[in-house]
Design brief:
Elements: H1 2-38, H2 41-63, H3 82-99, H4 115-136, H5 142-165, H6 174-192, H7 205-220, H8 229-252, H9 261-297, H10 309-326, H11 331-348, H12 353-368, H13 378-384
Helix pairs in contact: 1-2, 2-3, 3-4, 3-5, 4-5, 4-7, 5-6, 5-7, 6-8, 7-8, 8-12, 9-10, 9-12, 10-11, 11-12
């Protein structure tokens, strides 16, 4: 009887996935028709083929994981994909649509130039939504976790290639987009060679950093900020994440034994040093460098802006963010605000050596958090929690 129920559930899932695939194809065709009116037939056809190939790959990955549409391996299959997985597939479709712009120059025009970045932006927003929906509807599943990871990896790779091809970031950022595939390819190679693959301990940084990588790429794909700001931003966002991938690989390949007490003690010391010394020192350094940068450029700080009144707002913003970052009051919120203010600031002011260091420090404080001696860190708890849990 249970076997019959499981087969019925499996058939129902396959039928639903077929409908999702067909709707996705129909939307891609409609999108290509709209693009043909704005661009030309050949460009629209190329977009359709490229987006269709990525959508086909995502659908294949979904089909081969349908047996995981359950909360755990011992539980019975859900009869429906659930709204969480549907949102994940919508996000994957948006990534496929973004991939349609690969191998072509940045679209020209006041609206078209925003299109690749805006499509990817909506996909990035849904990355925070799908897990929330799954948990709130009581439909968390193994397939949802895996499809979320697959979508993240494809999205980062696609957006990284686009940002590099548009000249918005350095070619080395491709290492960030391809790191996931290199990491999992290495694991498959070890399994093929019958080499052990060691478990990876949980980390609160991986999910948060992946979200910030997507946020950086969204901005890099908008015709709003340009090099050298986007170049240094790419380096600042990429470096900690690549170090994280390298450490993870050393752990799963057995070169670092996380179960060893001495190794675990070293990791705790590094984490303690970061929390107690490095992150608080970073806050102080940000304020010092910000003062030096503004003094070096002169007052008012936004004199070359098209909106003279914005100089006063920028000055107030710099004072507010410097104060909040220094005392660790919602440090991550205000480092993010400072990233935006500095972006506008560098539109009208030349970046000097101190500005490169300043921007990297602000990004690293955003990624790591404000550390000890902070007065209010609710932003850290919000970023690290799973919405809807």
């Amino acid at each position: 009887m249970n076997v019959l129920k499981q087969q019925t559930a499996n058939d129902s899932l396959k039928r639903e996935l077929v409908w999702v695939v067909l709707i996705g194809i129909g939307c891609l065709i409609l999108g290509s028709l709209l693009l043909s009116a704005a661009l030309n037939f050949n460009s629209a056809l190329q977009w359709l083929i490229q987006a269709g190939l990525i959508w086909a790959f995502i659908c294949y990955q979904s089909h081969r994981r349908l047996h995981l549409n359950r909360p755990n391996l011992e539980a019975p299959l859900y009869k429906e994909l659930g709204w969480g997985n549907r949102v994940t597939l919508l996000r994957a479709w948006l990534i496929a649509a973004t991939a349609g712009f690969l191998l072509k120059p940045w679209p020209e025009g006041p609206l078209l130039s925003w299109l690749p970045g805006m499509i990817y932006f909506f996909g990035a927003v849904l990355d925070r939504v799908d897990g929330y929906v799954a948990r709130r509807t009581g439909h968390s599943s193994l397939i949802g976790t895996e499809l979320d990871t697959v979508s993240d990896a494809i999205g980062l790779a696609v957006a990284s290639i686009l940002a590099v091809s548009y000249g918005q970031t350095h070619w080395s950022f491709l290492f960030m987009g391809l790191a996931y595939y290199a990491y999992h390819g290495g694991i498959l190679w070890r399994k093929y060679r019958d080499l052990p693959v060691y478990p990876l301990p949980p980390s609160i940084h991986r999910r948060v950093w992946a979200g910030f990588q997507m946020g950086y790429l969204v901005v890099a794909l908008w015709p709003l900020f340009y090099p050298p700001l986007t170049l240094i931003g790419g380096f600042a966002f990429m470096l900690p994440a690549l170090i994280g991938f390298l450490v993870d690989w050393l752990i799963v390949s057995g070169r670092i034994d996380r179960k060893d007490e001495r190794v675990d003690r070293r990791f705790r010391k590094i984490a303690g040093f970061s929390q107690e010394i490095f992150q608080p020192a970073l806050r102080i350094l940000i304020v010092i460098l910000l003062v030096i940068s503004i003094v070096q450029s002169g007052f008012p700080p936004m004199a070359n802006s098209e909106f003279p009144w914005f100089s006063s707002i920028a000055t107030a913003g710099f004072v507010l963010t410097a104060f909040m970052i220094l005392f660790g009051i919602a440090g991550r919120y205000f480092t993010l605000l400072l990233v935006g203010l500095l972006g506008w600031y560098y539109i009208g002011n030349t970046m000097h050596a101190v500005d490169y260091v300043l921007f990297c420090c602000v990004v690293w404080s955003l990624l790591l958090g404000s550390g000890r001696f902070s007065l209010w860190q609710e932003d850290d708890r919000w970023l690290n929690r799973y919405d809807g849990a």
